[in-house]
Amino acid sequence: MNDGIQDKIIVITGASSGLGEAAARHLARAGAKLVLGARRLDRLQALAGELGLPRGAAVQTDVTRAEQVRRLVDGAVQLHGRIDVLINNAGLMPHSLLEQGRIEDWDRMIDVNLKGVLYGIAAALPHMKERRSGHIINVSSVAGHKVRPGSAVYAATKTAVRVISEGLRQEVKPYHIRTTIISPGAVQSELPLSVTEPEMAKRIGAFYETHAIPAEAFARVVAFAIRQPDDVDVNEILFRPTTQEL
């Protein structure tokens, strides 16, 4: 029985760990045909091998490079003949106070969290428009809804992902393409490891140890959005651990 995931061609960025890895495992069990992108090729190839993916389904991808994202998506089309779903998942979260002026961290967040999503959209949209079918899932964050001291730039990038996704939703209606924003709270991943400011890293690490829920929770949310009938467009899902206040 096809539950909406079986045999769908799904491309995932940031697939070598955390949310992307969990989504890949969950969707593979549901019968999806995956093409995975991430910077760490060794981990990506190990995951692809474990999931029994064909050669060419693990593509070293730095989402800050438009040509690499295009190669990932085009490779999926060459391998499987189409792309049904793109999950723009790659992201990082080096929180710090603005007064600390950690410009390199700001640039990295803008390049990965924001430009990476745009590059994914640019790569997938021509294929989906041609087939008049497809689904683009962009990963935002609770921080795309709420900003706190130390999260200003991260929250700005994740708010921008929501704004871009809403604009995309309106633009692609003539092509029957679906769009979904997923905004997780504290979910177990390597995001806390991207925090470079020592005191902030300690606080965020402690918060995640106390509150973070398994990455499988994210994977189930992704599957829910994909499983909907073609005439149902789930545009945004915001979820948190039950114990997370903000």
- CATH fold field value: Rossmann fold
Give the N-terminus to C-terminus distance in angstroms: 40 Å
Q: Measured on Cα atoms, how large is the radius of gyration?
A: 17 Å
Strand order of the largest sheet: 3-2-1-4-5-6-7
What is the C-level CATH assignment? Alpha Beta
Outline of the structure:
With 246 residues, this protein is of the alpha/beta class.
Short key terms for the protein model shown above:
globular; Rossmann fold; single chain; alpha/beta; 246 residues
Description:
With 246 residues, the protein is of the alpha/beta class. Helix content is 46%, strand content 15%. The chain is built from seven helices and seven strands. It has a seven-stranded parallel β-sheet, with helices on both faces. Helix 4 links the parallel strand 4 (85-88) and strand 5. Helix 1 (18-29) packs across helix 7 (216-227). The protein is globular, with a radius of gyration of 17 Å.
Write the layout of secondary structure elements.
Blueprint: E1 9-13, H1 18-29, E2 33-38, H2 41-51, E3 58-60, H3 66-80, E4 85-88, H4 103-131, E5 134-139, H5 152-171, E6 177-184, H6 198-211, H7 216-227, E7 236-239
Parallel strand pairs: 1-2, 1-4, 2-3, 4-5, 5-6, 6-7
